[in-house]
Amino acid sequence: MMSAEEAAKHLNSTARIVRYRERLGLLRPGRAPRLHRRFTQEDLAALRLADSIERSYGASPGELAFALRALTSPVLASKIETLAQITGRLVATSAVLNFEQQKALALLANSTRTAPQRGAARDTDR
């Protein structure tokens, strides 16, 4: 466990940036009320990954925090999906999901046809 200052040294960053990313929700809550936050190796890994995503995709920490909210809030995810459909940005994804859904339904229908009926004698029971 380490302080924000120690975590920042490991990340070649500042304690202020570490705390900012924590406030945005880029780390799991890990502090009791009125106590100093202690960062773990897992926190450092999360911060490194967040930094890598931000650099690779040109995203800000705030944008990444919003993306996490969208992934974990069904209501928000649904509204974003509706927006993506309206703007035509979800067409390919919907087609893939529809294909996967049809495939799953076909597998389910097939397994229902081949599954032993309830109450029917099994080969091992004979």
Low-confidence stretches: none
CATH topology of the largest domain: Multidrug-efflux Transporter Regulator, Chain: A, Domain 2
Please compute the radius of gyration using only Cα atoms. Answer: 24 Å
Mean pLDDT: 82
Number of domains: 2
Helix and strand succession?
Answer: HHHHHH
Can you count the helices?
Answer: 6
Q: Please outline the major beta sheet.
A: none
What is the CA-CA span between the terminal residues?
Answer: 62 Å
What's the CATH C level of the largest domain? Mainly Alpha
What coarse outline follows from CA principal-axis ratios? Answer: elongated
List the helices and strands and how they pair.
Layout (H helix, E strand, L loop, with lengths): L3 H8 L3 H10 L16 H17 L3 H12 L1 H13 L4 H24 L12
Describe this protein's structure.
The protein is mainly alpha-helical. The protein has two domains: 72 residues, Orthogonal Bundle (Multidrug-efflux Transporter Regulator, Chain: A, Domain 2), CATH 1.10.1660.10; 41 residues. It has six helices and no strands.
Summarize the structure.
By secondary structure, the protein is an all-alpha fold.
Index terms:
single chain; 126 residues; Multidrug-efflux Transporter Regulator, Chain: A, Domain 2
